[in-house]
Design brief:
The protein has four helices and eight strands. The chain is an alpha+beta fold. The two termini are about 30 Å apart.
Length: about 150
C-alpha cells in the first residue's frame, strides 16, 4: 500500500519511495510509475527580489498526516490507479534539496499523470503545511493561510 509522511530533512528520498510503491501486491498491473520531486529553487520567487537562501516548512502534523492519508486514499481509488505515495519534508531546506515527493503507480500513463498533478496541487491547497522563504534580503511566509488558526488549535 502507498505511503504518506512528514519527514525531517534527509529522512526520505525518491529511491525509497519508488522501491516501496513497487512492492504493492498488484504492481504487476502497473504500466506506469510517475513521480514528482519538488526542489527548493534559488529564485527570485514569492514577494522578494532577493535570492532564496533556504526555506523553512512547518506543519500542523496531526492534521496534516490525517489529510495526507485522506488525499492518498481518494487518489488511489481513481480509475487505473494502483497506488499513490505522498511525502513532504517539514524542516529547513537549502537550495537544491527535496521538499515534496509524490509517486503514482498506474495501469497506464494516461491515468497516472493527471493523478500526479492533482496530488501536487491538492497538497499545496489542502494540507496544513506552511513555507517560510528566507532570501538574501528578507524573510516571509509564502503560504501561511490558516497557520495562526492551527497554532492556537487544541
Amino acid at each position: 500500500m502507498g505511503t504518506i509522511g512528514l519527514h525531517s530533512r534527509g529522512e526520505v528520498n525518491l529511491e525509497q519511495i519508488i522501491q516501496g510503491i513497487r512492492k504493492h501486491a498488484e504492481s504487476a498491473r502497473a504500466g506506469a510509475l510517475v513521480t514528482f520531486v519538488g526542489i527548493v529553487r534559488e529564485g527570485p520567487v514569492g514577494h522578494s527580489a532577493g535570492r532564496v537562501r533556504f526555506l523553512e516548512y512547518e506543519a500542523f502534523e496531526e492534521v496534516a498526516i490525517h489529510k495526507l492519508q485522506e488525499l492518498r486514499d481518494d487518489l488511489a481509488k481513481r480509475e487505473g490507479i494502483v497506488d499513490v505515495s505522498i511525502h513532504h519534508v517539514v524542516d529547513r531546506l537549502q537550495v537544491g534539496e527535496e521538499s515534496l515527493i509524490v509517486a503514482v503507480l498506474g495501469t497506464h500513463r494516461r491515468f497516472a499523470f493527471p493523478v500526479l498533478e492533482e496530488a501536487v496541487e491538492r497538497v499545496k491547497k489542502e494540507i496544513p503545511i506552511w513555507k517560510k522563504e528566507i532570501t538574501s534580503d528578507d524573510a516571509y511566509w509564502v503560504s501561511d493561510t490558516g497557520r495562526e488558526d492551527y497554532k492556537s488549535y487544541g
